[in-house]
Amino acid sequence: ASAVARQTEGVELSPSQGDLNVDRVLQPGTTMVPREIAGSVLRTLAAAQNLELDGKSVISSTELLRPSCTLSHECTRSGADAFDVELRADPRITEVVASGVALAGDTLHELADTDVTGVKLEHLPSKKRYAGADVLTLVTEVLPELRKRFAVSIQTDRLPELVSGILPRIRLQVEQVADCLTVFGTLVYGDPPLARIDSGRLVHLGGAIPQRNESAEQRAVAETRHLLGLTPGTPLRAQGHRAIELAQRLEQWDGELAGNQGRRFIHRAELAPQLQPSDRSFSLRFDGKNEQGETLEASAESVLRAFREGHSLVPLLGGGFARIPANWMTLYGDRVEQLLNARQRDASGEEQLPKHALPELAALCEALDAPGPPELTRLRALAGEFEAIPEADLPVDLKADLRHYQRVGVNWLCFLRDAGMGATLADDMGLGKTLQALCVLRGRCLVVCPTSVVHNWADELRKFRPGLSFDVYHGPKRRLDPDTAVTLTSYALLRLDQATLAAVNWDVVVLDEAQTIKNPESQVTQAAYSLKAQFRMTLSGTPVENRLEELWSQFHFSNPGLLGGRSEFQAQYSEPISLGVSGAAARLRSKIRPFLLRRDKKTVAPELPPRSDVVLRCDLSETERQLYDAISAATKKEVVEQLRAGGGVMQALEALLRLRQAACHPALVPGSDAVSSSKTERLVDALEAAQADGHKSLVFSQWTSFLDLLEPHMTARGIRFNRLDGSTRDRGQVVADFQSPGGPEVMLLSLKAGGTGLNLTAADHVFLMDLWWNPAVEQQAMDRAHRIGQENPVFVYRLVSRDTVEERILALQDQKRAIADAALADGAGAQSLTREDLLALLD
Predict the structure, then answer these.
(1) Residue 318 CB neighbour total at 10 angstroms
(2) pLDDT band at residue 14 under the 50/70/90 scheme
């Protein structure tokens, strides 16, 4: 084209069409690669004449020369299949003259593109072996591409066939061990599976090789994830109620299931309980028949767990799930669970029930119309009324005439003692719990009580059981006398000398005022738990003061395991009762009824004079009101905000203390030096009036400093008094002086030192100077006077400052009384001093 453009006159070029075609291919700026140029030139020169290559005459052909491709089979030494793919050049080729161009004799040919094999024509012949997992690549990837380029000669019938049109599916492998269900999903092709998808790759399993359909794979995976929450290749494990839920979802699965379950997950049969009592234990199983008549069985523990968690299905021992007997479990499930939990292994490894659980088993057998063994039959009286308990022989040295209710109590205590079970005697204060306890002492006995009543026990022993030797274990030179029938000691010494007292195998251990061990984590409670005894007895007129856990602690001493562990008791009784769950309190009362005896004064001692409770309201003076309002303004707002935010409990208790003190006497508040108070004046006036009418009075306060403030006013008015608090040394003499006809008209007592164990029936007026939110503590103080032996009506006066926190405490006391009723009588539950209580008192 350039020459034609520059030609001069007389010189002419006459290019042919072929010349122009070649010229166009070779012109500068062409975008073709050299191989494409060669092919284009050869096709253009196909019609050219006089074509030479290196001076030799040649012709150009449009025929492509292709390598030949053969696939052959060989068996390796290990017996595995191996396939060889071999490419060989066309045998006519005599020389490769350029990239993509070869000479066959005198004819130029274009070479076919062989890049798909990864081998250039220049390197032929080329051979590659495919074995093992590579065979899949050969069939699915390599051969399809080779066939597009070459005529492939397959010289074996061992090569797997590639088939299309097979859709992928999810295959589930299901295994069950106990209540754990494991499901593993695999994405496969074919039935039976020809291949599976593993980490995105196709793994050949045998037979024909399926052509992958990735869009269908994605759909199958998505559907499985939606229905089961399962991703193929990742095991899904579920236990308990989650396993049951998974089994129910698997019922909707219409694909393949494999494993030890197959499709037998949920059987339509309902299991039935089979109870078999033995001498000291029982066995329980649940079984039934499925649609094919096969026996189904589940453990009692798994049925109870499923029922407790609100499920209708339970895992079977042989695999699968069946329906639990819901109605039966509603009636007897709680009883059965408690009995199962109570079983203990003896020295031989055999599971047995503790003796305190045998009455419960007897009652269950009776409810199920199942015969109980002789060991249970003997204890059936505990499942009925106490009147059914046989009358016990009284000690020959007993110097007392028992009232009817006391005789019933002694019979009951002796029955439990002889049966090897513990007892909690919770009669109202003043009904003679000590006397009833004295009637069942035999062998070597230990009595633990508050320090204030140790000598009262000594007096009662001398009076009612003179035939029993006793020793008071106290003092720096204290030692245990093995020949003494009864050892008296205090809770303080029990804590200090735990190792010494726990080393003795006592016949009887009595804990008096057993509410002392209400905190199971305290050192004195742990010391009590360590004591060894054939018969354990607790005495308390207020076994529940604040929280139901206090009852658990005392029963854990007298009958360990009866109420289960602390967390179990909290879940089964304490929390449901506090929330007002119907039937929860009744279940607790039924559980403890054989081992707790409680009578009130109104029922068993109608001859006891009446008690009148009076609230004496006091109006604060102007100075007292200013002090009270100042403390309230300075603390309440900040403390209430902290309580509502979840903190500030200690600050709230401190604020409550200051408000209560300010409501009683200004001088109780640090920084104040007031001489008198409205309450003090009201008290002294009332004491003068009582004294003038010939009455004796008890005055209680929880603060000894308040008693100090009262003394000068009583002296100034000529009121004779004595005093009993923690510093009093000769407590017995102080009590005797007050009880004597010519003794002082008033006794001042600290609530802690004088609230338990004292008989002060000479008084018929009781004054409570400061309110406590726990009414049981106040009840103990009142019953120092209102008890058997009292001949006069008793008047109890609570002094309450008007428009102060004390009025709110009165309302809180009513709520607190309900907690004891929940466990010991009919009524709803209540909580202890909670954050909500503090808010109610301070807000």
Answers:
(1) 13
(2) confident
pLDDT at 248: 77
CA distance 641 to 635: 10
Residue 88 sits at φ, ψ, to 5 deg, of -125, 145
565-617 residue pLDDT tens? 888 888 888 888 877 788 888 888 888 888 899 888 777 777 778 888 888 88
pLDDT in tens, 792-807: 888 899 899 988 888 8
**CA-to-CA distance for 536 and 445, rounded, in angstroms?**
10
- Under DSSP, the state recorded for 138 is I
Cα gap 702→806, rounded to integer Å: 14
Task: Output DSSP code: residue 126.
Answer: E
Query: How far are the Cα atoms of 323, 561, 683, 736 from residue 719, in angstroms, in the given order?
Result: 78, 53, 12, 19
3-state secondary structure 364-402: HHHHCCCCCCHHHHCCHHHHCCHHHCCCCCCCCCCCCCC
Q: Which residue has tokens 């204290």?
A: 478
CA geometry: angle 559, 562, 566, nearest 5 deg: 105
Task: Say whether 668 sits in a helix, a strand or coil.
Answer: helix
Report how far Cα 106 is from the mean position of its chain's Cα atoms.
Answer: 94
Give, to the nearest 10 degrees, the angle between helix 214-228 and helix 241-250.
130
Torsion over CA: 779, 782, 788, 792 (sign): negative
Report the C-alpha gap between 90 and 124 in whole angstroms: 10
| pLDDT over 80 (residue 632) | yes
Q: HSE of 365 in the Cβ direction (CA atoms, 13 Å)?
A: 24
167 DSSP assignment: P
Whether residue 114 has pLDDT greater than 80 = no
Pairing of strands 180-189, 168-177: antiparallel
Nearest to 688 by CA among 746, 615, 621: 746
Give the predicted TM-score (pTM) of the model: 0.53
Pairing state of beta strands 107-111 and 59-65? parallel
Q: How far apart are the first and last CA of the chain?
A: 108
Closest among 423, 494, 433, 437 to 468, alpha carbons compared: 437
